[in-house]
Amino acid sequence: IDTSGEESFVMLNASRPPFDDLRARQALTLATPLQAYRDLIALGVAPDANQMFTLDSPFYAPDVVQAGDDPDAATPLVADYCADVPDQCSGGKIDVELQWFGPAVITTRTAEILDQGWGGHFNVAFDELAQDTHIQEIALGQYDAAIWRQFGAVDPSLDRLFLICRTIDVISLNFARYCTDERDALIAEAQATPDDARRAELWQEITRQTNDAATYVFLDHTAWDNAFRAEVQGVCNRTSPDGLPLRCSITGATWFDSVWFDRS
What is d(CA 255, CA 143) in angstroms, rounded to the nearest whole number? Predict the structure, then answer.
């Protein structure tokens, strides 16, 4: 099982109400029932995620911990927000839509678990869509909150398009539609530097700033498994020119150009 690629999270659209306001993003983050999700959905198989990097990654920021399971701390944030933006609230709660693709039992159950945690502070409307429509609406920014899976590149610079300012437009690849010039500068430096230690420091700071922005509520690191009959050979028999073994799979994808079948 490979857990090094892609993270599951709730993604918030920072380009429109209510999540264009940091208070609303922080409130939903704090109210998220992390432990219930991890117990009932991840089932102890998919590791808990605090960020886009796993514990064994050189880019992992050990001081970053995903907030959640603290609905009481969300209460004053929701009260302040609703006092300032009453049109986005009903009955003292923030009105929000949660979108995901389906039909799929696991994502529907995930939505129900999230709503159980959020319900004390948010009026949550469900929007289950076919996957192609879901992806289109995410790219167009036609959502509030979404159950999403992303990141996981071996070189995090390959994931920069999900974070930088210049990929935000009518159609965006920065799906959360949030960026800062400061974070962009860190990403550019991380991409350019040949110093591995400096690159790790930069991505750790990028992780801290992303956590502070509260645009993603990380849930778990996706567990990928590829199973084959004993007759299938050569799936992972790939080496570099100097004989070092290469990764067998990345974010669930496996190379099949070296596969052969043993019929003996």
Answer: 35
Are residues 244 and 134 part of one domain? Answer: no
Burial class (CB in 10 A: 0-12, 13-18, 19+), 45: exposed
Q: What is the pLDDT of residue 249?
A: 66
249: containing domain: 230-264
- Are residues 263 and 204 part of one domain? no
Helix 181-192 and helix 196-213, axial crossing angle in degrees, nearest 10: 160
Nearest residue to 74 (alpha-carbon basis) of 132, 112, 28: 28
Mean pLDDT of residues grouped by 10 in the chain (264 residues)?
80 98 98 97 92 95 98 98 98 98 95 98 98 98 97 91 98 98 98 97 98 98 80 78 76 64 75
Please give the model's pTM, rounded to 2 decimal places. 0.90
Same domain flag for 97 and 221: yes
Q: How many CA atoms lie within 13 A of 93 on its CB side?
A: 16
Task: Give the ranges where 50-172 is alpha helix by DSSP (H).
Answer: 71-84, 105-118, 131-139
Decide if 2 is inside a domain: no
Give the long-range contacts of residues 184-189, CB within 8 A, separation 24 or more. Answer: 187/157, 187/160, 187/163
